[in-house]
Write a structure and sequence with these properties.
This protein starts with 5 loop residues before the first helix and ends in a 5-residue tail after the last strand. The longest helix is centred in the first third of the chain and has 10 residues. About 5% of the residues have low confidence. A twelve-stranded antiparallel barrel has the order 1-2-3-4-5-6-7-8-9-10-11-12. It has a single domain, classed as monomeric porin ompg (Porin). It is mainly beta.
Amino acid sequence: MKNIFVIPCLLISCCLFAQDSTEKKPVEIFNTQKAILANTTEMVGKGKMDFRITHNFDDIDGHGASMISRFLGLDNAKDIRIGFHFGLTDNLDIQVARVKGGNVYTNNASGAVSKFYELALKYRFMTQRENDPKHPVSMALFVSNAISSVKASVAPNTNFENSFKNFSDRMSQTFQLIVAKKFKKISVALNPTYVHTNFVVQGDEKSMFALGGAVRVPLSNRFALLVDYFHPFRSRASKNFFNTVDNVYSPPGDVTVNSTPFHFYDPFGIGVEITTAGHVFSLNFSNAVDILENRFIRFTTKSWTKGQYRWCFTISRKFTLWRPK
């Protein structure tokens, strides 16, 4: 477990020496700290707070029931994140959030891990600057720890996600390197991501790598097109395990919790960003149900081709807490 923190600590230490006192104008690559699912290199700003609410609804189609009767999935909130992002410096943010969670890849919701408290930190150690070949890109490191406060399962002979034995079983970590660049008006980000979960069910993987990215294309002064995508590198053995009916969520002792096989899909989102005088809205469609990296990278089991995509929105409002001297 200690080895998990070695890489980000080394990155931060090395990058502290990479700062340049150049006065060339920094480039604003993205408009907010997140595209849809992918983090960006944008920061809140020293002395400011960004209050962000993200809301993911249910499938627009794909349930067999009438889309109209479910109001295109808007009758059911699948995941909600309420976050406070604080700018300690111009290049260091801390985030505190509460996340609903609870969407598992089985039909047994009683074993779902939910009710997360998220504590995250983002440090930008390089900033793209106009007409400066020494600073061609922006780079940042995002680290988070999510802790589930859901009640632990006490059912015997089960392997639910919430079969916690220790407090550490409730935790999962995300480490993400963000590399972003603006090409004239088009913004691009690359997000190699590593997630680690302290407790997983049989057949799942504690550690997983994913490669993601985002693109922002301005359509006008107030509107922009957003696209982002992640490819998780889940092992073939794990995929085969969950594709087999007899093995799905089967704990030691061969007590089958769920007998429905399923498949994992790459999270993909597309949306529109709307900028107003005081707010930034993001109206998106995504096949990812969950909001947290440690969830959507590991647990996206919905498919665009089956109508299993949903409305998602994020609203962001900045406040000034103190004015730098």
